[in-house]
Amino acid sequence: MVDTVMKLAPLSFFTLFAYSSTLFGQTSQGDSFALSAQVSALKAKSLVHEKEIEALLSSKPLEPTKFNPPVSGAVVPPEPDASGNQVPPSPYLPVPDYYETKEPVSPPDAIPSSKTNDIPSSTTNLSETSDVLDLNSSDSQGDENENEDRVADVLIERHDGYYFGPLLGFVIPDDGAVRNLVNNTKESFESDAGYFIGLQFGKDFGTIRWEVEYSHHGFDGQGSGTDYEISVHDFMTRLLLEKEIGDLIDLRAGLGMGIGFISIEDNQDYSGESFVYDFGVGASYRLRENMNLSLDYRYFLSAAEDQYDRLKGHIFTASANFDL
């Protein structure tokens, strides 16, 4: 058995070698044929490409294109219309010219009866339109008046709050007297009219006013052979009650009190401090929203002192109060 295998082994080896060589030889021969075909196709394509390049190079060169761009900012003027009014082309239809003709107006005697019957309707229409215009005008005038009234109300609206203002007026004092403590005698004098100035600051609460005031009034007096010079400086507070009369006018009355520094001079000085008070009535007028004018009358009194009798008098003042 072993001998038989040994004899068959060389034969099998040679048979396998012959078959593989035949197989591989055929494969390599087919590959060589395929490669040669691809090379031939590539050469043919290159020849065609070379001929196309030769044809392009043999053609005439292209002429360059010239461009003329417009200059920036240059305005081309429009060409004048030499033909005048040109008529557009045919789908356009010209607008016909219409000429209005007015019929001659005949005199009133020649108006036919048929037309006279139509006159009242036209007149009634005119009257109705005039009535409408009159109504519109009256409405517009009414609106303007209402606007003016509103503006006036805004301008003169009462202002509740603080205010201040100057005082200016004159005084008509009663006669007075001084006491000479050296001789223990009393000397009377007749008073002349004098001046009054002051400054006040207050607050308006609506129907009540509270004020503080500094005022100065002075006048002269003539005694028996002696002239007197009287000067009074007052620091007072005042309470006023007001009553509105319409939108612009207020009536008021009040009471003031304070302290007064009184000086009466002739050959010697009669000076002192006294309690002073006054009663007053007056009226104020609202001139603007933040300003009013006042006219007041006061009856002024002071307490008597050792060197002089009580001073009394009538004071008339005018003041302008400015709201703060």
Detailed description of the structure:
The chain has a domain at 162-323: Porin, CATH 2.40.160. 30% of the residues lie in helices and 40% in strands. The protein is built from three helices and ten strands; from the N terminus they run αααββββββββββ. It has an eight-stranded antiparallel β-barrel. Strand 2 (176-180) and strand 3 form a beta hairpin. The longest helix is centred in the first third of the chain and has 57 residues, at 2-58. The termini are far apart.
Tell me the layout of helices and strands.
Layout: H1 2-58, H2 113-116, H3 119-155, E1 162-173, E2 176-180, E3 185-191, E4 194-204, E5 208-222, E6 227-245, E7 249-265, E8 269-288, E9 291-302, E10 312-323
Antiparallel strand pairs: 1-4, 1-10, 2-3, 3-5, 4-5, 5-6, 6-7, 7-8, 8-9, 9-10
Low-pLDDT parts are 110-124
Supply the CATH architecture of the domain at 162-323: Beta Barrel
Tell me the Rg in angstroms. Answer: 64 Å
**What's the end-to-end separation, in Å?**
147 Å
Helix content: 25-40%
Taken from the alpha-carbon principal axes, the silhouette is elongated
Number of strands: 10
Average pLDDT taken over every residue: 77
Strand ordering within the main sheet? 1-4-5-6-7-8-9-10
Sheet-strand content, in percent, reads: 35-45%
Backbone structural class:
alpha+beta
